[in-house]
Amino acid sequence: MVVTTTNEPTVLVIDSEADRATTLKNMIEFLDTPAVAVAGVDEWQSIAEQICVSAVFLGSGLNADTAGVISRQLQQQLPDIPVVVVDEHHDRNT
Asked: Does the model's pTM come out above 0.85?
């Protein structure tokens, strides 16, 4: 993903699946959050360095181990930024 360096507060969506990340990005933008960037597992750190990260969403496409590693890295690099872990809930009755 190409990201322009910006000082505008930006929500960063990290997911291993591009389609899922884009869907989450669209949902966040629908909530009137204009600046949302999408990153894959291997590129999120370089993208985070180019933007003013205001929050991070870890998509449900990440496995628990990967989400844990990224979460720990975020705590070290951006300790004051909220991190939301998106988890899919599957109703076993349907």
From this structure: no
